[in-house]
Design a protein that fits this description.
Blueprint (H helix, E strand, L loop, with lengths): L4 E5 L6 H13 L7 E5 L5 H7 L4 E5 L16 H6 L4 E4 L2 H6 L4 H13 L3 E6 L3 H5 L3 H13 L4 H4 L3 E4 L13 H18 L1 H6 L2 E4 L4 H8 L6 E4 L6 H11 L1
Parallel strand pairs: 1-2, 1-8, 2-3, 3-4, 4-5, 5-6, 6-7, 7-8
The chain binds glyceraldehyde-3-phosphate (G3H).
GO molecular function, one term: triose-phosphate isomerase activity
EC number: 5.3.1.1
Protein name: Triosephosphate isomerase
Length: 248
């Protein structure tokens, strides 16, 4: 049984005031039984988010360096994140792949750095609209998955969370239909089974891309969708909580 995980990704948004709002609301509102929640906040807010938000909410970063330490001005290592009590980190988000040139080997290096630091990597996968139109969705998504899983040990693979995010649905208001999302999630699950049947049973595969309170329930009802990676709607505490309720 995979407990659903609702993870908010604030991207480069938010403020100390928003952290305080979430801290207040989330300390007054219990999450539904059996639902895990996480917030991926910008680097400057990680420490205060960890200290002010309830322990039940995991705190995540949005990227990390592929290096453990050294002369890499501006970078943040997995060990530093761990020092702050951060538990998770996004890796391979499409905005990192597209805007910051992170290819599959850069993504793999960051997954390995996260594992080395004791963090849970949330590995993001997804196709562009052009790739979907060319009927290459599964080839692209499974290729991104293999590029990481092939290089990890069986034990390391078990520590990942996956997020399928069709690039054309991110921040566009255009959500994959539940059937479209389920089809890709099922293909991911089948590929996981080709590595290890236990892995396919236990690994959480989240959906991301314009998930909001009005569409979360039907997406989360799909058998292979184990939660959501929420961008825009995670900036409103009421919307974030409503999506957590939908997962309950
Ligand atoms: O990480 C979150 C995703 O990029 C989804 O963002 P969105 O919910 O604003 O479409």
């Amino acid at each position: 049984m995979r407990a659903p995980l609702i993870a908010g990704n604030w991207k480069m948004n938010g403020s100390l005031e928003l952290v305080a709002t979430f801290a207040e609301e989330l300390s007054q509102t219990a999450l539904p039984d059996g639902v895990d929640a996480a917030l991926m906040v910008p680097f400057p807010y990680l420490g205060i988010a960890r200290s002010r938000l309830p322990e039940a909410i995991s705190i995540g970063a949005q990227t990390l360096s592929d290096q453990p330490s050294g002369a890499f001005t501006g970078e943040v290592s997995g060990t530093m994140l761990n020092d702050l009590g951060v538990q998770m980190v996004l890796v391979g988000h499409s905005e990192r792949r597209t805007l910051f040139g992170e290819d599959d080997s850069a993504v793999l290096a960051r997954v390995q750095a996260a594992l080395e630091a004791g963090l849970v990597p949330v590995l993001c996968l997804g196709e562009t609209l052009e790739e979907r139109d060319a009927e290459r969705t599964e080839a692209v998504v499974l290729g991104q998955l293999d590029a990481v899983l092939d290089a990890l040990s069986a034990d390391q693979r078990q520590r990942l969370v996956l997020a399928y995010e069709p690039v054309w649905a991110i921040g566009t208001g255009r959500t994959a239909t539940p059937e479209q999302a389920q089809q890709v999630h099922a293909a991911i699950r089948a590929r996981l089974a080709s590595y290890d049947s236990q892995l396919a049973e236990t690994m959480k595969v989240l959906y991301g891309g314009s998930m909001k309170p009005s569409n979360a329930a039907e997406l989360l009802a799909q058998p292979d969708i184990d939660g959501g990676l929420i961008g825009g709607a995670s900036l409103q505490v009421d919307d974030f909580l409503a999506i957590c309720q939908s997962a309950g």
